[in-house]
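Database export, one record per block. Field names are fixed; values are copied verbatim from the stored entry.
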Amino acid sequence: MRYRRSPRVLERHVAGGVLATTPSDPAIHELSGGAASVWSELVLPWTVDEVVGRLAAAHGAERGSIADQVLRCIEELLAIGLLEEVADA
């Protein structure tokens, strides 16, 4: 499964992160640090493993040390409606 930003998301880049919401969500979600990094990668549809690999390479981290954090972040962003699943082709 691949994940990408929902086309319904409204976002604004602010110093150190991103503010994001959807028209049906009364909350504004502040994405910073690792969440902002995951968000920036998901402008295109990627699998969790691909996001982990891209972030590990970009930040000089071991894949294993960030894999669980990336997965949890994607799950949380999906649960609040900021991401959507895209079936593999």
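Remark 1: The longest strand covers residues 10-14.
Remark 2: Helices lie at 33-41, 48-59, 63-79.
End of record.
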